[in-house]
DNA sequence: GTTAGCACTCTTAACGCCTGAGTGCTAACT
DNA sequence: AGTTAGCACTCAGGCGTTAAGAGTGCTAAC
């Protein structure tokens, strides 16, 4: 779709104005912002055409225009200025993240918080990796005479641990034998830890099998857990501030709370920044929202993603670079933390 | 404050009716529920007295009555029936919790979820212990040549772990020496892990001090983290459903999100079930809400708490036993999991 | 002490009215 | 042919009025 230069300017102005005020923008109002030597009537004509092209919409006949999903899309793809991050935001991000240390869990938590705060939207963060991440290490630590802790570390630095209890006594030599047996799993992907693999392992345990079974079950659970998307949500309540979402906030927040469909959204993202605007979303609960998601990589492997969910009326020009910057930073920190 | 038998019945009926419908209850309406041989006029007289005693209130002159905080309080303390848990709820709780295994983190998460679901309120759960819990074990596990994982286990079964990175190489013998040094901390309370203790430890490290410092810092952080209340919040969005909270939901949800004041609330609770109704709450954000909190113990030590936050119009008779049952169950499971 | 009856209060919804913002269209202008 | 002034039209939102309904408090009688 090719637009005249003037239409582009008008569309951009409508989008930006609406993002700023949240009010439908009318022709006269636009005149003030545009400083083109035109009358409101001309603008009206142009806006009418943009409407019939499906880029602008009117809430009702006698109201100004607001951008449609397609309108935002055109703006984001073709008109939006500066892909550079705002200096103030950069500092804010750096300041928040630098205080979080290198522990992935803490780091992601902090990243989600700063994102939600900064954008006044809901933020999601995940450390998931899908099933392609591999097991880097499995450790056991005796805790009591019948309990042991199992620790699983993935190639992307995710740490999962669990206390397991066995009915029979757990001795240190037993744990050593268990360690040797499970070391066969190191290097395998999380997806490969399935019933078959575990049965093979169990078979090699001989007389230890009975005592080791709870531990082995623990390992399976941990692998499952690590592979399973762990979605963290921040700042849902920010969404309550947006008039345009009001009608369905409850549905929206409820949708976000059930992490699972959100997982889909995240998994489907390509690398780089993914932007889904309004009706482009597959989920009806999101049809009035936009989602900006970006993945980060740890050790050149996909490490997880960060993103935000807000009204379609987002300040894309500002937020997209911020999200990108934040994810890159997180990926960088985590990679460095894992360096040998 | 002593009430006539008839006033008691009327107050109880108003409370129960209002809990059920959420509408101010009028004299005629009450008549249907009460099946006493009285006219609405008599009831009106009684209600007028209950109002002047501060137990009932009117939203406006021509509306029915709703209970005041004191009214609810009187009801809970003196009038409320059955402290027995509802069989359906018991099954629901047991079913949910039994699927969660014995891992404290997972268990508490599940407990919070079921509580929020069951009650249609916001649920809080914490594994905190304050600073009196002691350190049960500190373990280190090598991860890479410059990284190690530190694991801290408390007497109440809380497990905290962290990946630490040192600029100098971390060898296995070094970790062994570190283990020996830190074993001095085992048995100490979390509160005792302060700068002074750590400096003493650092002093005993000799030439290892430089390489061990990041690890030691990690231990301190973990102890802090374990001592620090970890408040988990579920089902905030449930609160959006209550008309009577509508005016301040945003403030309320925002208040809950900042876990810290919530922490106060929780810490101040006595053992057993704590109920705070409406204006009894210290925090203005909670003046239209009620809080039901209950602590659980692990190994006869205080292990944390579970609770819910909703409108004052809660079904106390049903929820109080449920919360109590759930906390007892959680405490029981966790105690058993730690048994030697 | 209880009750019937009544006047009174107050909320809520519905209705009509008005205003202001904004539009689309037409006819004139450059 | 593109631009503009002007005008009739539409519609949301605010405001006051009205009517209905729920519920009360009070009084006088039982």
Please describe what this structure looks like.
Chain A is α+β, with helices and mostly antiparallel strands. The first copy, chain A, folds into three domains: 5-79, Orthogonal Bundle (Arc Repressor Mutant, subunit A); 87-129 and 231-339, GAF domain (Beta-Lactamase); 135-227, Enolase-like, domain 1, CATH 3.30.390.60. The first copy, chain A, is built from twelve helices and ten strands. In chain A, the strands form three sheets. Chain A has a five-stranded antiparallel sheet with strand order 7-3-10-9-8, sandwiched between helices. A three-stranded antiparallel sheet of chain A has the order 4-5-6, with helices on one face. In chain A, strand 5 and strand 6 form a beta hairpin. In chain A, helix 6 runs antiparallel to helix 12 (316-338). Chain A is elongated, with a radius of gyration of 26 Å. The mean pLDDT of chain A is 89.
């Amino acid at each position: 779709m090719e637009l005249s230069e003037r239409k582009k300017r008008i569309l951009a102005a409508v989008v930006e104005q609406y993002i700023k005020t949240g009010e439908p923008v009318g022709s006269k109002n636009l005149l003030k912002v545009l400083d083109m030597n035109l009358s409101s009537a001309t603008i009206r004509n142009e806006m009418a055409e943009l409407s019939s092209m499906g880029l602008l919409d009117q809430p009702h006949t006698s109201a100004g225009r607001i951008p449609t999903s397609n309108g935002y899309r055109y703006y984001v793809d073709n008109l939006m200025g500066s892909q550079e991050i705002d200096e103030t935001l950069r500092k804010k991000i750096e300041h928040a993240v630098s205080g979080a240390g290198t522990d992935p869990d803490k780091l992601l938590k902090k990243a989600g918080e700063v994102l939600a705060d900064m954008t006044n939207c809901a933020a999601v963060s995940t450390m998931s990796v899908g099933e392609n991440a591999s097991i880097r290490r499995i450790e056991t630590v005796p805790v009591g005479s019948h309990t042991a802790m199992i620790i699983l570390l993935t190639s992307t630095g995710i740490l999962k641990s669990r206390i397991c209890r066995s009915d029979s006594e757990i001795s240190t030599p037993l744990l050593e034998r268990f360690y040797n047996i499970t070391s066969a799993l190191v290097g395998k992907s999380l997806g490969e830890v399935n019933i078959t693999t575990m049965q093979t392992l169990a078979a090699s345990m001989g007389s230890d099998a009975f005592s080791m079974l709870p531990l082995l079950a623990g390992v399976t659970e941990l692998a499952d857990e690590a592979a399973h998307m762990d979605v963290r949500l921040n700042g849902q309540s920010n969404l309550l501030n947006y008039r345009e979402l009001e009608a369905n906030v409850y549905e929206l927040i409820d949708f976000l709370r059930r992490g699972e469909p959100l997982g889909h959204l995240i998994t489907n993202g390509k690398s780089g920044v993914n932007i889904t605007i309004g009706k482009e979303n597959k989920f009806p609960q999101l049809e009035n929202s936009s989602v900006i998601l970006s993945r980060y990589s740890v050790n050149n492997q996909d490490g997880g993603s960060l993103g935000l969910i807000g009204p379609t009326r987002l300040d894309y020009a500002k937020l997209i670079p911020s999200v990108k910057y934040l994810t890159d930073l997180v990926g960088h920190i985590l990679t460095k933390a894992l360096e040998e």
